[in-house]
Design goal:
Length: about 270
Amino acid sequence: MNKLVRDLMQPGLITCKPDATLGQVATLLDRHQIHAVFVADPDGQILGVITDFDLMAGEWLSSDPESLDAMRKLTASDLMTKPVDSLDASTPLTEAIDIFLQKGVARFLVTENGAPVGIISLTDFVNSLTAQIRAHRETVGDVMSHAVLVCREETPVLSATYAMTSSGWRSVMVVDAKGKVLGVLSGYDLLPMIKNHTYDNLTVRDVMHPALTIDINASLREAADMMIKNHHHRLVVIDKENPDAFPIGALSSFDIVAEMARPDSVWQK
């Protein structure tokens, strides 16, 4: 590994003012789907960093009206951690990994010639592993998503939609207490109830549609044919030897398109 921090970092910074309220910081974290915001003065000087853990501590401490009132008066500068841990952009990644392990932190400010230029986090290292995966396009198991968004059938619809929004998933897999797939909740299932404003007391069971399942060893051609024939964008991946067990994963049209878009895909040659 001869790469440097600058090769893996995320350029640019999301910042807030020192007097930003905790609610404003929470909005920034949610909007950008990040775990930390740097606190900067009007000249762009980095003063500290405030994380989702800091906000959670504030939430836990505001257990009564008096405490809540006190916490709402706090600002980013009151809860931020300082000084901010930083790494130079020219630091070798192998050295950066050692520093991550020694410090036990999740992110570093990246500087170049003393000026902040970006951030490098544990997520960047995790994402880098994806690039090491060689393209395979023979079976469902080669392309599917192993991680899935699931809920129980008695989950309120509004709770499920919040999970979809916060995770970026377009559907939720519905399972019973033993993990057996019962159905899928998608955006299309939600449209009628949105039109009629009938979502307040509904559970996922009331609006989900039956799941289409496919074996992990099935060919991608089989999967594509099933999607096209049934006008479904997502299939539930199962082991045909144990079809009632918790699903292995999910295969979506996006998974197939993403595989086609990989630099080493046959579609890019």
